[in-house]
Write a structure and sequence with these properties.
The chain is α/β, with parallel strands linked by helices and 451 residues long. It has one domain: Metallo-dependent phosphatases (Purple Acid Phosphatase, chain A, domain 2, 4-Layer Sandwich). It is built from twelve helices and 19 strands. The strands form six sheets. It has a six-stranded mixed sheet with strand order 1-7-8-13-15-14, with no helix packed on it. α2 packs antiparallel against α6 and α3 packs across α8. The chain is globular and about 105 Å long.
Length: 451
């Protein structure tokens, strides 16, 4: 018995000694980590004093000898002051960074129903004549976002650092595909709709192919023919008891405008989700430059053309044979015929994920813009899109492209700082100045902010 007690004392002593050594090591490690973080943040503060342009978008040279457009030279704010509208947008971003739980859904449904009821029914076409705009009212063009809260909030936070007040002055055009694929449906929807409510007519939603949804009154659920589909099953599962909400949701998103005819000092642009219609409809209509309406003798042609315009994709071939599936391709000859018939100088569209976020075609007469992605953005379906972008157009019609997500440069409380250490909530401890990843909702991906 004495021998057993003696061995027990020895074992306890060894365990206690090991525990003390381990604790001392951890304390030392934490101290060194904090010293390293403090040193890096101090260096970052010095570095960002001299930051002018922190990121540019390089558009690779293409086989059609397209000339890459210059990226914007955008100055950031010298001070952290924000306008009333800008602060409201940032408050909205902060509000929906927290996950929406299932008990919150009845309130969310009621807010969305109120929004749907307040929106007037819109025609399938819109005319914007920027030649008449004398003040510096920029146009922000946003491609596919697909329920990606990180990318959408990143766009708003990035623009908030600009010396130009986008939220008080700019017009925002979304090119469609708000639904499906992304992983934060309710948070994303509330941010998107909240932004629209704040800006009103200065925020325009166009229809993408993922907005072709309907409410099946027999089954009393949402249905979509687009694959892969995630929004409809999610809403059916979590909101299926609220048939009014499901019906109004489908009615709003399925009836968004299809295209905008935009007149600038450089010419006439067409803003649309996909592109041009099939060959067989090409000579059956023209787009009026008086009001942007499609003029045709056959309503069936108009319906077919509108559907085609949310599905088509450009290729670098001169001519492209077109099959019978919903999604089809067109070549340069087909683009030039459509542009000639309708007196269109340029098309700005989305619909396709492109690695660099933007891709020019046909001697810079067509641009594809994609606004969700990021290799470490866990809320996007498109991690192959390394550099998602937005387009920024001045009143002169020049369009430039701006990155959304990149590592290392972040913003908190109006100040830039450099941070090259990725850490978890536990690492932050009680230090209020250390940014926590779950507070940012960024999942190890940091913003680079310029304008």
């Amino acid at each position: 018995m004495i021998r057993i007690m003696f061995l027990s004392v020895i074992i306890l002593g060894i365990i206690l000694t090991a525990s003390i050594i381990l604790n001392m090591y951890q304390i030392r490690k934490n101290r060194l980590l904090r010293e390293e973080i403090a040193s890096i943040r101090k260096a970052g503060t010095e570095l960002t004093k001299n930051i002018k342009n922190t990121q540019t978008v390089s558009i690779p040279e293409k086989k059609d000898n397209s000339v890459a457009q210059p990226t914007p030279h955008i100055e950031t704010k010298a001070e952290a002051r924000k306008s009333g509208m800008e602060q409201k947008v940032l408050n909205l971003v902060a509000k929906y960074r927290k996950d929406i739980e299932e008990p919150d859904l009845p309130k969310i449904e009621a807010e969305l129903i109120k929004f749907f009821d307040s929106q007037p029914k819109q025609p399938y076409y819109m005319l914007m004549d920027r030649r008449m705009i004398k003040e510096d009212r920029r146009l922000v063009i946003i491609g596919d976002t697909h329920c990606d809260y990180n990318s959408l909030s990143g766009i708003f936070e990035k623009l908030s650092l600009s010396s130009y007040d986008y939220f008080e002055n700019a017009i925002f055009v979304f090119l469609g595909d708000y639904l499906d694929r992304g992983y934060t449906l309710f948070e994303y929807l509330m941010l998107l709709v909240g932004f629209k409510k704040l800006l009103g007519d200065r925020c325009i939603f166009l229809k993408g192919n993922h907005e072709t949804i309907r409410y099946n009154s027999t089954l009393q659920e949402l249905a979509s023919s687009v694959q892969p589909v995630s929004t409809c099953p999610t809403l059916n599962e979590y909101c299926g008891k609220n048939k009014v909400f499901l019906s109004k949701f489908a009615d709003y998103f399925s009836n968004l405008p299809i295209y905008i005819l935009l007149k600038t000092q450089k010419g006439t642009d067409l803003l649309v989700h996909g592109g041009i219609p099939r060959d067989r409809y090409m000579d059956g209509f023209i787009i009026s430059h008086d009001n942007a309406e499609m003029i045709t003798d056959d309503e069936r042609i108009k319906d077919a053309v509108l559907e085609n315009m949310i599905w088509s994709d450009p290729t670098r071939e001169k001519l492209r044979l077109q099959g019978a599936s919903s999604r089809f391709e067109f070549g340069q000859d087909q683009f030039e015929k459509f542009a000639f018939n309708n007196k269109i100088d340029r098309i700005i569209r989305s619909h396709e994920p492109v690695e660099n976020g933007v891709e020019p075609y046909y001697d810079n007469r067509l641009y594809t813009i994609f606004s969700t992605g990021g290799t470490k953005n866990k809320l996007t379906y498109y991690d192959s899109v390394i550099n998602p972008v937005i387009g920024i157009m001045g009143v002169d019609g020049e369009i430039r492209f701006e990155s959304i997500l990149i590592k290392k440069v972040i913003q908190k409380n109006g100040f830039n700082s450099l941070n090259v250490i990725l850490y978890d909530k536990e690492d932050a401890g009680s230090d209020p100045d250390i940014l926590k990843l779950d507070d940012l909702h960024l999942n190890n991906e940091f913003f680079i902010i310029n304008q």
